[in-house]
Amino acid sequence: MSHPPEPPPLFGATPSSITECARQLIQRLRQTQRQIIDTVLPEDATFSNVLLPLAQAENAVSADKWLITSYRNFSPDAALQDAANVAATMFEDFELETSLNNDLFNLINTVLRIGEQLDCESRRYLEKKYKGHIRNGLLLSEDSSRQHFQAMQSRIAVLEAEYKKNLADSRLEVWLNRQDLRGVPDEVLSRFKSDTIGDEQRFRCDSRTILQVMMFATNADTRRLCYMASENTCRGNEVVFKELILLRAESARLLGYTSHAALRLEDRMAKTPDVVNNFLTNLVSMLSETANAEVENLKAMKKNDVESRGESFDGNYYFWDHAFYNRLMMEREYELDQQQLAEYFPLLSTIESMLEINQHLFGLVFTEITKPNQDSGVTLGYYKSAEILWHDDVRVFSVWNDKQEGGDFVGYLYLDLYDRKGKPPNACNVPIRPGCILPDGSRQYPATALLFDFEKPSVTNPTLLQHRDVILLFHELGHGIHELVAQTKFACFHGTASPVDFAEMPSQVLENWCWTPSQLKRLGRHYSYLSADHLQTWSEAANGKPRPTERLSDSEIANLTRSKHCNSALLYLRQTAIVGTGCQVESAAPRSSPPGWRRSREWRLGLGTWLCQL
């Protein structure tokens, strides 16, 4: 395989170099705008002499822009994250400045009105630029209104960055003793960090382990404590969020919209908040009967369980009960032990199998870069090997089309698998470099990172994945592959920057492979067969039990696939509550947000209570 035509991004930035790079990139873009305004008369404006130079300038700076702002998502250095947040705010402020440039808007408006015959992507770029000016207040009649709008947009950018940073910095932590953790298997507890406080051993539950506690702890108070802790990991964001909602609502009002929700939905398939609300209402109606039946079954299981321990049943089924009794139902009605199943999905071998499956599916080849300055399929010249990674735990792959697909280079895929301070608290895909056509006609190749918060395995103890974690891996890889294989002219449309209505589709599609029997047989391999160390680890915990088969049996796979829709009506009903809450909050009228905020909270809690009382 030949060397990639473009080296991977380098992560050798300093805080000062990030902000200086942002300043220089903005200056380059500003100069392009000025040149267009100075040289093109409105009557001569065309896509080629107005929009194309803008797009080419954006493409030319896109690699550096996306790279320096990506530091805020994963850098282990807080100063680099802060600098990246500053850079992102600088770009947002410049975007607002651009949108209020009346001379530039007049040229873009002229191009739109003359109605040139354009390819689809160029037409979309023209419409995006036009709407960007309108939605950033250019047509506001009074200077005072424009200034007020601009000040609000700048504040919104700051609040959004603060909100995301607070999420990344937040950490879930609950300390429990053995009495609290009755029912949690020893092999699960062995993976918890523990400490002796006084004369009592206590176990630290965090974002990776708290669901395990809620699945196994027989003490309902423990489950409630963990649930409430997991739902309140970032309380400081409530103040940020409230101000953000107020400013969004006021900004939308100035632009002539009834709400921020109306503004955001205008270009999406739903079009209006009424369509969303009607859809959710109909969905709740269709789900309710099945959800009622599911809750009655779970209530009966809870009643039998608590009364078997000599406790009284209060007749209710709460959110913090669900992980426990859903797991119990899986074991009793589907003969599915999630802990035993997890032994077939050790993290590292599951990733290798996942990549192999997707190589076959998409005609791709993933080649890990392990020795950057040697024969690794990539030439880095004088670059330090450390500069192609932001942390020693990160893995990077060069991605190619296979021979049948032409054997050409596709891009770079990064895997940042392990929990670390400063990373987002949820799995996500972070684009690092967009694919696009550069001004000289050459292609810029994409780079993207998949971020997770798994526990780091050791030589003797593998990290075992629940089946839901395997689904999560495939989901995020779907976003990653979307980033890699997308072919766009303009950086602003690359990969997951596509319309939101489509952006989740590739990842949703890949989830199906986690329920396909042939792929489950290929994915699942018991960890005791991976190495002698792993076999010894399993043997020590097995207490004389026979060794499991290397691959999942047909009956185990059948039980797993049969469980796919277990309690799914409740799952979807809760999702409608989350979506409905978001739409309710974003539909708040300007300056009435405090009561609107209370109403939305009451609605959410009311629906939550209704779900619990079904």
UniProtKB/TrEMBL annotation:
GO CC annotations? mitochondrial intermembrane space
Cofactor(s) this protein cannot do without: Zn(2+)
Matching entries from CDD domains are given as:
M3A_TOP
| Key words of the record | Hydrolase, Metal-binding, Metalloprotease, Protease, Zinc
Keyword DNA-binding listed: no
The answer, when asked if Zinc is one of the entry's keywords, is: yes
Q: Which GO terms describe its biological process?
A: peptide metabolic process; proteolysis
- Cofactor binding note from Swiss-Prot or TrEMBL: Binds 1 zinc ion.
A single MF term (Gene Ontology): metal ion binding
Q: Which residues form the Peptidase M3A/M3B catalytic domain?
A: 213-576
Family, as annotated: Belongs to the peptidase M3 family.
This one is known as: Mitochondrial intermediate peptidase
The upper taxonomy is: Eukaryota, Fungi, Dikarya, Ascomycota, Pezizomycotina
